[in-house]
User: What shape does this take?
Amino acid sequence: MSDRVILVGFMGSGKSTVGALLAERLGWDFVDFDERIEREQGRSIREIFRDEGEPFFRSLEAELTERVKDRREIVLAPGGGWITQPDLVERLRGGSRMIWLRVSPDVAYRRCGERPGQTRPLLATDAPLETIRAMLAARRRLYEQADAWVDTDARTPREVADEIERLLREE
Ligand code: S3P
Assistant: This one.
């Protein structure tokens, strides 16, 4: 069984919730990238995007990737756009199981709340659902590189964690 899991997937796919549950069950550490970045920066993702712009945020993701790349017995949940930096994926993939938490645009939209742009700056558009559709279509090929795909639309975080745990133990 690999001793590192990377949960990838679009905003609203449940990476943070599922990752915490899975890590608890396995007795492993959990790093939620966005949460760690916010804590270290002392400001929200929205503020980081607003004050410094997206490239700066992506550089923080790169720096965090570097810091976790030698850790084992760990569940990692990078933000949904981490996958768009292929060199980061390469750095972390070796010895990891990369799992794609699949979500449809409608469900992602629902899970991101009434005003998705409040917490997800890339969804601060006039038509967030359309934005989700377009971004998901553009990224699908990247998420598809994962070793396993798990549907989340009609499942609770606990059920998703169950399936991932089963996949890991079957390995
Ligand atoms: C982003 C996803 C967000 C966060 C940032 C950018 C993206 O993370 O990193 O708003 O580019 O898809 P979640 O997937 O945890 O919402």
Notes: The beta strands are 4-8, 29-32, 74-77, 97-102, 148-151.
